[in-house]
Amino acid sequence: MTVQHKLETGDTSLDESQLLETQRAFDSVAADYDGPRGNNELIQRMRITLWDTVHSELSPGARLLDLGCGTGIDAVEFARRGFRVVASDWSPQMVERARARAEASALESRVTAVHLGIQQLNQLEGEFDGIYSNFGPLNCAPDLAAVANECARLLKPGGRMVFSVMGRICPWELGYYALRGRFKRAGVRAARGATAVGMNRHTIWTYYYLPREFYKPFAEHFSLASYRALSLFLPPPYLVDYYRRRRNWCERLGRLDDRWGALPVLRDMGDHFLIVMHRR
After folding, report:
1. What is the pLDDT of residues 143-201, one digit of tens each?
2. Which of 67, 49, 116, 109 is nearest to 84 (CA)?
3. Is the model's pTM score more than 0.85?
4. For 169-181, what is each residue's pLDDT tens digit?
5. 19: domain CATH number?
6. In a 10 Å sphere around its CB, with 0-12 CB exposed, 13-18 middle and 19+ buried, how is residue 237 labelled?
7. How far is Cα 170 from Cα 179, in angstroms, rounded to an integer?
8. How far apart are CA 251 and CA 183, in angstroms?
9. Nearest to 53 by CA among 279, 264, 277, 280
10. Residue range(s) defining the domain that contains residue 248
11. Considering Cα of 137, then 140, then 141, then 144, what sign does the dihedral take?
């Protein structure tokens, strides 16, 4: 079945061809992925929130599994903090970048980079104290229930999971595109099932979630410890130029994120949400 046919018929399931499309999209940007992202203050702010949350949930020396490691920025940071990390990604080019980053940082003894998609966790063996995922790799997983079962198999009882997931309701995105008359783009996160998102002339197949909607497939094996909005009052990372032009104003918005982002109702919105689950 072609991609165009799936779009026309409303088929919302991810098949192997779509997974490969997503893989090719990330392969295509791996070489320079750290450029605009590495210098993006809004991305770094969200990244540090995940780092500090993982660190508060688990002690240095713990063994971590990184789902969708990208170029290995998070894995190397946790290795520096004393953790041992298995860093996995569906993009082989991203895995090579992660491996090179660990070697350049002289941390290859603490970081093992493996080419493994989230949909392939049944191929992974071992036991972990914690599992984390940053900036939405789980939004590309075709079957969250299968992911939940594999995470339960891999995680020790009492283990922790910390995921940064792209949310369904992003007020900034709705307003930004609606004011420009791009109503279809403004509502892209409202779609149910797999949604085609363009990147570098390729397609990433993406699901968007509300926090409780995301948690539901994990509920059998994991208790929900907490969740909070990321980039709710602050603009999303692709509006970093707006942030730079109005840095003082946006820093005030960032303080609102820190203060109110975990409150009921507000925590269900934002560019991403950060969710913490404990293995029963």
Report:
1. 999 999 999 999 999 999 999 999 999 999 999 999 999 999 999 999 989 999 999 99
2. 109
3. yes
4. 999 999 999 999 9
5. 3.40.50.150
6. buried
7. 14
8. 28
9. 277
10. 3-279
11. positive
